[in-house]
From TrEMBL:
It comes from the Bacteria. Residues 27-219 form the DTW domain. This is tRNA-uridine aminocarboxypropyltransferase. The keyword Hydrolase does not apply. GO terms for molecular function: tRNA-uridine aminocarboxypropyltransferase activity. Its EC number is 2.5.1.25. Keywords: S-adenosyl-L-methionine, Transferase, tRNA processing.
Length: 233
C-alpha cells in the first residue's frame, strides 16, 4: 500500500472515532486504500507523476473516509500532497508552517466571488518564481464555504479562482449550482495552467477511471447518475 497524507489522515480520523463511520454503501466490501468495491479496485493502476506545483488539502471532518471523495486522488498522483483536518480555532502547526514556508507561493483555491474586497485574486497560477502551493478546501460545497469564511490563518493569502468552461464530469454527488466542480477536476485544471501538463493528464485519467469504477460499483447506477456536487472549487 503506497502511503500518502490522505491515507494517514484517514487512519488518524478513524482512530479518533467514537462510533463506526457508515458511508452510503457501507455494506459493500471495499478496498481499504481506494475505498472502491473490491471488484473495482484501481490501486494497481496508479501512476504517480512529478510536478512543480504542490497541493495542500484542508479536509472537513469525515471527508477523508468518504468513498466519493476525490481529493485523495490528488495524493494518489502527487505523493507529496499534504492533507490536514480543518479546525477553525486550532489548525495543525504543520499546516501553519507549510503556508508560511518561504519555499512556496501559497494560494487558496476558491471562487473569486467569495473573496473580500481588497483581497488579491488570481485567475492563473504563477509560472515563475517559487512553486505554487494550492490550498484546497475539501468538503461538500456548504462545508467548503464554511472553511473559507472561518479560517483566519488563511485570510491573508491570495485566492485563485479557476473558470472551467466545460460541463463537470463528476456525477457522484448532487450539485447545488452550475459552475461547481469536484476537487480533482479543479486540481487537474490548475496543474495544466501551471505548466504541469503530464501531471494534469495523469490526474485526469485517474479521476476518469475512478469515476467509472465508482459508478460501476453502485447498483442501478445508470438510472441514478445526477449532476455534480463538488468537494471544493
Amino acid at each position: 500500500m503506497t502511503e500518502n497524507a490522505v491515507l494517514r489522515l484517514r487512519a488518524e480520523r478513524l482512530a479518533r472515532a467514537t462510533r463506526p463511520f457508515l458511508a452510503r454503501g457501507n455494506r459493500i466490501r471495499r478496498c481499504q486504500r481506494c475505498l472502491l468495491p473490491l471488484k473495482q479496485c484501481l490501486c494497481e493502476t496508479l501512476q504517480p507523476q512529478n510536478a512543480r506545483s504542490r497541493f495542500c488539502l484542508v479536509m472537513f471532518d469525515t471527508e477523508p473516509m468518504k468513498p466519493s471523495n476525490t481529493g485523495r486522488l490528488i495524493a494518489d498522483i502527487l505523493p507529496d500532497t499534504e492533507a490536514f483536518q480543518w479546525s477553525r480555532t486550532e489548525p495543525p502547526q504543520a499546516l501553519l508552517d507549510l503556508v508560511s514556508s518561504p519555499d512556496y507561493q501559497p494560494m487558496v483555491v476558491f471562487p473569486a466571488s467569495y473573496a473580500s474586497a481588497g483581497r488579491e485574486v488570481l485567475t492563473v497560477p504563477p509560472k515563475s518564481g517559487k512553486p505554487p502551493l494550492f490550498i484546497m478546501l475539501d468538503g461538500t460545497w456548504t462545508e467548503a464555504r464554511k472553511m473559507f469564511r472561518k479560517s483566519p490563518y488563511l485570510d491573508n493569502l491570495p485566492v485563485i479562482s479557476v473558470d472551467l468552461s466545460i460541463v463537470s464530469a463528476y456525477r457522484l454527488r448532487e450539485a447545488h449550482a452550475d459552475g461547481q466542480y469536484c476537487t480533482a477536476e479543479v486540481a487537474a485544471a490548475l496543474l495544466a495552467l501551471a505548466g504541469d501538463e503530464h501531471a494534469a493528464v495523469g490526474l485526469t485519467e485517474h479521476f476518469t477511471l475512478f469515476r467509472e469504477r465508482y459508478l460501476a460499483g453502485k447498483p442501478h447506477h445508470q438510472s441514478s447518475i445526477t449532476a455534480a456536487e463538488p468537494e471544493s472549487v
